[in-house]
Design a protein that fits this description.
The chain has 294 residues and is mainly alpha-helical. The chain is built from 15 helices and 2 strands. The structure holds geranylgeranyl diphosphate.
Length: 294
Amino acid sequence: MSLSYPDDLKLLVNEALRAYFPHSDEPLNTVSEAMAYSLFSPGKRFRPVLTLLAAEALGADPKIALPVACAIEFIHTYSLIHDDLPAIDNDDLRRGRATCHVKFGEDVAILAGDALFAEAFVLVLTEQSKCTDPGPLLEALKELAVATGINGMVGGQVADIMATGLSVDRVTLEYIHNHKTGSLITAAARCGAILGGGSFAQIEAISEYAGHLGLTFQIIDDILDVVGSTDGVGKHVGRDADNRKTTFPGQLGVNRAQEEAQATAARAIEALSGARFRTDRLVDMANFVLRRTS
Ligand code: GRG
């Protein structure tokens, strides 16, 4: 089993993030500094890399998906900044560094998140105005808006908050994970497939793959919060138990949660069987997500 991570695509993402980072009209803008601090801290770039992988799988040059991939990392970073706030998870360590609100204050951190969200849309809309056919970029942008809204990440986060301290049924548990984390991961893959010129059937296959991948990602995230190390994950572990979060390992125990993750990763790979496009690096990514320690 290969555990290789597509570092070539991660490098492209990191270079493009620098190029697309918005310039502030005000040179001493603390919000701009806070945005850069969180965005350029050492993340895996998993979602934008997935966007590039999906485009590449369909035979496109992955670089065509870079603006949308970077917009997705802006949105992801926004969600991390807000998730860490005292009003939500109240974390002081993220990506191995002090969280944005600890470093810059809550007021600036809230605004840095808000600005990253807005700038994600500015980035894609600026690119679409240069295109002869803006259709795919606008379609991708709609994917991102839906994935982050009430029926996406925000909906999942609210359900997560409401479930705090409760033992919930399986449907609710999956709803939380699929929306809080899975929506943006699925949208990332769908955007790559749309920009890569995929047919309806190809986009649906990649979408199904990514849906299972997103659930696997969050189950492993919650397992790492129990058995991982602070050095490995770059944040304090044991926080889900402290915050009485509803998680797979919390509800089922670590071993059964690990079995669930194996089953969902297998479903992700199965969704690609019979696909008439390149699947090797998508399969590698599913194996990486299942085995990751950071
Ligand atoms: C951004 C629209 C929007 C709303 C904010 C706070 C919130 C609402 C949602 C929280 C979503 C969230 C942070 C879910 C957890 C997802 C998760 C597993 C994050 C860790 O992702 P990694 O491991 O982190 O990819 P790195 O640091 O590698 O990027």
